[in-house]
Amino acid sequence: MSTSNITSGNTKSAMTGHGRVVILGAGESGVGAAKLAQAKGFEVFVSDYGVIADKYKAALEKLGVPFESEKHTEELILNATEVIKSPGIPPTAPIVKKLVAKGIPVISEIEFAKRYTTAKTICITGSNGKSTTSLLTYHILKNAGLNVGLAGNIGQSFAAQVATDHYDYYVLEISSFMLDDMFEFKADIAVLLNITPDHLDRYDYKLENYAASKMRIIQNQTADDVFIYCADDEESLKAMAITKPLAKTYPFSIVKPVETGAYLEETTIHILTEPTNQLTMSISDLALQGKHNVYNSMASGIVAKVLELRNDSIRESMGNFKNIEHRLEHVAKISGIDFINDSKATNVNSTWYALESMTSDVVLIMGGVDKGNDYSMLKDLVKSKVKAIVCLGKDNKRIHDAFEDDVDVIVNTFSADEAAQIAFHLAKRGDTVLLSPACASFDLFKNYEDRGNQFKAAVREL
User: Fold this and answer.
1) Which residue ranges are tagged as binding site?
2) pTM over 0.70
3) CB-based burial of residue 97 (10 Å sphere; 0-12 exposed, 13-18 middle, 19+ buried)?
4) What task does this protein carry out (predicted)?
């Protein structure tokens, strides 16, 4: 057996304890899992079918954990006691199928790390808004003086933090891919923001399969736990009818009052976990504007009230929060034209939210890797707000087909520079150029961050 691609930092790593843990994927979660598994006395091996980034190679070498890149050596993987899999590796990957056939447990980094912490977990999922809501929730808790960490699909690895830090609370952004590999994990507070078609290529193009995956956020919860959900989201309500929550539930709504939870009355948000203790706040005082962000702020506010934080502290944090990069991020105003980077909008619903919050005519830059998108939900907003579409991707046929009757100008581009320049020429003073792709980025870019950064650089060159 060739081991030319296998590297070991030093020999002192040959620790044996409770068995052999193999980690598939050497990104943030994989290297964090390796750190925790090693600290807990397991024999650890990391295997990545792709090229391992230099910073993660260096981290593994420093730990002294043996690893391989650009291959999966079966003899070194199929002898595992347990396997921790990167969320990006699909269950259809040949090595995963072989592990399952052998009866070797395959779990997520989140599942593994939770075994080794007694911290309370606030777990946030949803097709849209989960990064913003996770960051806002973390901001509120941290500003209130809680000893809190941020992990999951955002920030540093949960496992790495469990290995080195001692937080009392963790805010975890949880994707459906993570949930698929979580079994015994329990969220103390679970938040489901919404369910809209996303990643359907991973779920046999069936929304009900994807919805069932999202509902795993409440698995193992008891009456002592909390479940926060959107009462206005039809798919969430359908999924809840099939998978009934056992936890104490707090709905949030912008269309109807609720007894406990959060609701909007004209321009005032009411957040209450019991009738006698209510927080009220004008939506104009929220740091995050737009209808979708009212939902995100309500969800975070309910978490804060459940944890019995002071109203003044919650209000202050909800008013001074700064949103994440690549999510409706204002880049520049050039010749009276606003340029907004919403590269994190990798599905149709995210783009719907972005368009819904626009108050001027829009030149929309969209396109990329289509994950089985249904563009019909955008048609009304495109008709009323979008004057031109600039496609940014290798194959734009489905965008042309979807909107050729609604927009006079649809142009193809193949770089962020070209897209920014053409959008600038199509826009006029008072308009907005909005990058909100509704698609993944992997055809032309490394990831949505790379796409957003290239767009911002191109705008600054105009």
Assistant:
1) 126-132
2) yes
3) exposed
4) Cell wall formation. Catalyzes the addition of glutamate to the nucleotide precursor UDP-N-acetylmuramoyl-L-alanine (UMA).
